[in-house]
């Protein structure tokens, strides 16, 4: 399949991958850095910029106007919607979903089946009254598998969201959260050490 993309050196692109999908008129090529590995059945739209050492599992989708930093790993079935910014050294687990207008900082880990939910405007609630509904995740954050993050939530730096947690409100820096809905606690030293081990794996 012909790609509409600029690739760096030493990239491995498997069969049935589409790079630079032209979803609009005058769409720019996708730009992907060095040492990328993109597994089969993945789709990268045009207007996407990806740094070095990118790894995409099978069936990954990255939609337009999205920026990914260096050392980003998207496991099988991850979907990244448009107008998303992701920093360096980010790992997103299988089947997780990142909607429009989300910002993810550096050194962030999302477990499997994490959903960052999004709000949709309706006739009763037009977009102009909703403001920016995108979620912001700070640097050095871990979000456990099967967690749900509601739209517009800000998660501060150095936070640990335990597995199967539903976050409906902002989480301050240096906190941990668990439960449905989430209860927030100060980050313990033990959890801080666990986070460092996860980041260094």
UniProtKB/TrEMBL annotation:
Keywords for the protein's UniProt record, in alphabetical order: Acyltransferase, Amino-acid biosynthesis, Diaminopimelate biosynthesis, Lysine biosynthesis, Repeat, Transferase
Molecular function as annotated in GO: acyltransferase activity
PANTHER family in the cross-refs: 2,3,4,5-TETRAHYDROPYRIDINE-2,6-DICARBOXYLATE N-ACETYLTRANSFERASE, ACETYLTRANSFERASE
Gene3D superfamilies given in the database record: Hexapeptide repeat proteins
InterPro entries tied to this protein: Hexapep (IPR001451), Hexapep_transf_CS (IPR018357), Trans_hexapeptide_repeat (IPR050179), Trimer_LpxA-like_sf (IPR011004)
SUPFAM superfamilies: Trimeric LpxA-like enzymes (SSF51161)
Pfam family, one: Hexapep
Record-stated family: Belongs to the transferase hexapeptide repeat family.
BP GO annotations: diaminopimelate biosynthetic process; lysine biosynthetic process
The name this protein goes by in its record: Transferase hexapeptide repeat
Species name: Nitrospina gracilis (strain 3/211)
